[in-house]
Write a structure and sequence with these properties.
Blueprint (H helix, E strand, L loop, with lengths): L1 E4 L7 E4 L15 E5 L4 E4 L12 H9 L4 E11 L2 E10 L2 H9 L3 E6 L2 H14 L17 H13 L3
Antiparallel strand pairs: 1-2, 1-4, 3-4, 5-6, 5-7
Helix pairs in contact: 1-3
Length: 161
């Protein structure tokens, strides 16, 4: 996670994920401050595991269908060793999961997904995503019909029409 200064009197800095590292050999451990100075602060958080779920296939498809497929990183501000840090809590590739998190009031940022991840995600989505068949659309009542005419006449009679 990266903290960068802002030219704002209301918010002096902003936290963003700098990148999602793909290193299966990196062991899970305590958060580590990699750099700390007035203009730049970076923290490393390890131990995240990527799992793809067949019931999230639509969310993966929607991510792939965007102009720039990405990781979605949900983080919360927490205090570590007396310093306020944005701590990532969830890393996902599902557009739908990210939307649910944001609907719940969580902070979700994006990081571009590397080509290898996009390729594997595409294979998974092709194997599991089945779009819902389109259904015939019923006309809403405001488009006319006998029931609307009866409703209008009844309304007119109630109001002296």
């Amino acid at each position: 996670m990266h903290r960068k200064p802002l030219a704002s009197r209301w918010q002096p800095y902003q936290w963003q994920p700098a990148e999602v590292l793909l290193d299966p050999g990196m062991p899970a451990g305590a958060p580590r401050c990699l750099r700390e100075d007035a203009d730049d602060m970076r923290w490393l958080f390890t131990g995240f595991e990527l799992r793809l779920y067949s019931d999230e296939a639509e969310g993966y498809f929607l991510n792939l269908d965007s102009r720039a497929p990405c990781w979605f990183v949900m983080s919360r501000l927490e205090e570590i060793d007396g310093v306020e840090v944005a701590v990532p809590r969830t890393v996902t590739l599902s557009y739908n999961e990210a939307a649910r998190l944001m609907d719940g009031g969580e902070q979700v940022d994006t990081v571009p997904a590397p080509a290898l991840i996009v390729e594997r995600l595409m294979e998974f989505a092709q194997a599991y995503y089945r779009p819902e068949p389109k259904r015939k659309r019923r006309k809403p009542s405001f488009e006319g019909g006998a029931a609307v005419d009866r409703m209008a006449k009844a309304e007119g009679q109630r109001h002296g029409g």
